[in-house]
Specification:
Number of helices: 0
Distance between the termini: 12 Å
Strand order of the largest sheet: 3-2-1-28
Order of helices and strands: EEEEEEEEEEEEEEEEEEEEEEEEEEEE
Number of strands: 28
Oligomer: single chain
Largest sheet: 4 strands, antiparallel
Length: about 325
C-alpha cells in the first residue's frame, strides 16, 4: 500500500511502482513509502508528456517529442529498450490494452495509433486520422473503443471492431485536454482549457451496440486550464488537475463539493493518479515536486523531490497482496 511502510519501486514483484517524468528529460522511479529516488532513466532530446506502465509491470512507456520510448523497470540500463519510430510532433498520450497485446498513442500529428506489441519490433498497425492535434486518448474498459480528444474540442469514439466513429462537441472553441472512463465503464469525464469538466453516463458499450453518451454534469471545475482527469479504482471519485495550482477530488455520486488539494509551493498540477485502495492521490506539479495526498484529510503525506524542472507526467501501479 502506497501510504504504508511496504512497497518499493524498481522491482515489479513489490507492491508499488511510482514513476514521474518532466521537462528535465528524465524519468524517476521512486520508493513510494520513503520518497527516495531509486533510479533515473534518461529520455534524451525530449520532455516527458505521458507515462504508462505495462500490464505485466515489467516496462514503462514514455511519450515525448517524436518518440515513444519503452524502458525496462527492473533492468540496470537507464536508456530505452524500445524506441517507436516514424512519429512526428509531440506524442501526448500512451496506454496499453489490458493483456498487453497492443499499445495506443495520440499526438499533435492529428492521429491516434495502435501499435502491435506481439511482434519483435514495434509496428504501427492502425491509424485514426482527425483534423486537429490530438491532446488525449483513453481506452474504454471494454477494450474495443478508443476515445480521442482533440484541440478543436471534438471527442471521437473510435470503434476498433467496425472502424466506425462517432463525434461529440461538448463546448465550441474549447480544446479537450484530458479524458477518462471509470473502471466500471459507467462514466466518461472530459476537461478543457476553460477549466470545465463534462460528465457523461455511458450506455451500451457491449458486443451488440456501441457506447452511448448521456450528458449528466457540466462542472465549473477550475479557474484556469483543467489539465488532467482520472477516476479512482473503486469508481467512487474523480480527480481533476489544473493550471490554477490545485487538484480537486469529486465524488461520483453527485459530483459536488470537491475536496481541494493545494499548498503554497504548488504550481500547475499536470497529472494525478489514485492508489489502488483509492485512499491516496499522487500529483505532479510544475514546481518539480510530486506529492502524496491523503484523500480523506486533504493533506500531504509525502513529497518526492529530485526533478530539476516541471513534472508533467506520472504513473502509479500498486497491487493488492493476498
Amino acid at each position: 500500500m502506497i501510504g504504508g511502510e511496504e512497497g518499493c519501486v524498481g522491482d515489479s514483484s513489490e507492491t508499488v511502482i511510482l514513476a514521474t517524468g518532466g521537462y528535465d528529460h528524465t524519468i524517476k522511479l521512486w520508493q513510494a513509502h520513503t520518497g527516495n529516488c531509486q533510479r533515473t532513466l534518461q529520455n534524451p532530446e525530449s520532455q516527458v508528456n505521458a507515462l504508462e506502465i505495462t500490464p505485466d509491470r515489467q516496462r514503462i512507456a514514455a511519450a515525448g517529442y517524436q518518440h515513444v520510448r519503452i524502458y525496462d523497470i527492473n533492468g540496470s540500463i537507464n536508456t530505452a529498450a524500445v524506441n517507436c519510430e516514424g512519429l512526428t510532433k509531440n506524442v501526448t498520450s500512451v496506454g496499453f490494452q489490458e493483456d498487453g497485446k497492443w499499445m495506443y498513442t495520440g499526438g499533435e500529428d492529428c492521429s491516434a495509433r495502435i501499435w502491435d506489441l506481439r511482434k519483435g519490433s514495434m509496428q504501427c498497425q492502425r491509424i485514426f486520422q482527425v483534423s486537429a492535434p490530438v491532446n488525449c486518448v483513453c481506452l474504454h474498459p471494454n477494450q474495443a473503443e478508443l476515445i480521442v480528444g482533440d484541440q478543436s474540442g471534438i471527442i471521437h469514439i473510435w470503434d476498433l471492431k467496425t472502424d466506425h466513429n462517432e463525434q461529440l462537441i461538448p463546448e465550441t472553441d474549447a480544446a479537450i485536454l484530458s479524458m477518462a472512463v471509470d473502471p466500471l465503464g459507467s462514466f466518461l469525464a472530459a476537461v478543457n482549457n476553460k477549466g470545465r469538466c463534462f460528465i457523461w453516463e455511458l450506455g451500451g458499450g457491449t458486443t451488440e451496440e456501441p457506447t452511448r453518451l448521456i450528458p449528466k454534469h457540466k462542472l465549473e471545475a477550475h479557474k484556469r486550464h483543467a489539465l488532467k482527469c482520472r477516476f479512482s479504482p473503486d469508481s467512487q471519485m474523480l480527480v481533476t488537475t489544473s493550471a490554477d495550482q490545485t487538484a480537486k477530488i469529486w465524488g461520483t455520486e453527485k459530483f459536488e463539493n470537491p475536496q481541494e488539494l493545494t499548498c503554497d509551493a504548488q504550481r500547475w498540477v499536470w497529472d494525478a493518479a489514485f492508489s489502488l485502495d483509492s485512499q491516496y492521490v499522487v500529483t505532479a506539479s510544475s514546481d518539480g515536486v510530486a506529492r502524496l495526498w491523503d484523500v480523506a484529510e486533504g493533506s500531504i503525506k509525502r513529497e518526492y523531490t529530485g526533478h530539476q524542472k516541471a513534472i508533467t507526467a506520472l504513473a502509479l501501479e500498486d497491487v493488492a497482496r493476498d
